[in-house]
Amino acid sequence: MKLVEETTFRDRFYVFKDRYHAGELLTGKLEEYRCADAYVLAIPAGGVPVGYVISKNLGLPFDVIVVRKIHIPWNQEAGFGAVTFDGIVVLNERLLRILGLTREEVDRCIRVEEEAIKRRLKLFRGGRPFPDLENKVVILVDDGIASGYTMLSAVKSVAKRKPSKIVVAVPTGSEDAIELLEPWVDEMVCLNVRTGPIFAVADAYEFWHDLTDEDVLKILKAIT
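The structure assignment produced for this chain is given below.
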C-alpha cells in the first residue's frame, strides 16, 4: 500500500479549521485523479463535507456509502465493529473478547445498526441504485479513522464491486487504523497521521461538531 501523508502534520493536533478545509488540503494530494475515471464515495455523516469538496474540486462524481459503527451497548461513543448497507459485517475480535458480549448480544447490536442503515438509505439515497464501480478508481472518504473498522467495512463492500483501484482519503487517522487497512487498499492518503494509545478524530479540527442528517441532506441537495 502506498501511504501519502503531510509529514509536517504528523502527531499534531488542530491542523484543520473544519471538514471543508480538510477537504481542500486533501484535494492537493489527489490531483492525479482529476477528471479521471473515478468515483468519490463518502461515509455519512462526517465524511460527506470532506468528500463533497474533493469531488467538486477534482470534477469527479460523488455519492455516499452508508455504513454504521456497531456500538457498544453501554457506550454509544465507542464501537466493536461495523456493518455496511449490503450486509458486510466486520468485527474487532480482540475488543469483543475483552467486552465479553455473547453472540446473541452481538447480533442484537448488529440489528440495531441495520435498522439505522435502512433509515439512512431511504433518507440519503431514496430509490437510487448504487453506482457501478467496476474498473473505476474509487476514492473512499471519511473525516477521520480511529479504529479503522468502519472504513474497512466500506472497503470490503467496494472491493466486491471490482474497482480498478481503491484509495482511502482521510484528513486524520491513527497509525493502528492505517495498519489495519494496509492489506485491503491500494493507496492511503492521510494528512495527519497520529501515533500513541489514545486517538480522537475531533482533535485534528479547530472547529468540530457532530453533523446531523439535515446537514448531510443540505450538501447532497447542493450536488443535485
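Interim note for the steering committee: Residues 4 and 24 are 15 Å apart (CA to CA). The domain at 2-66+132-223 is CATH 3.40.50.2020 (Rossmann fold).
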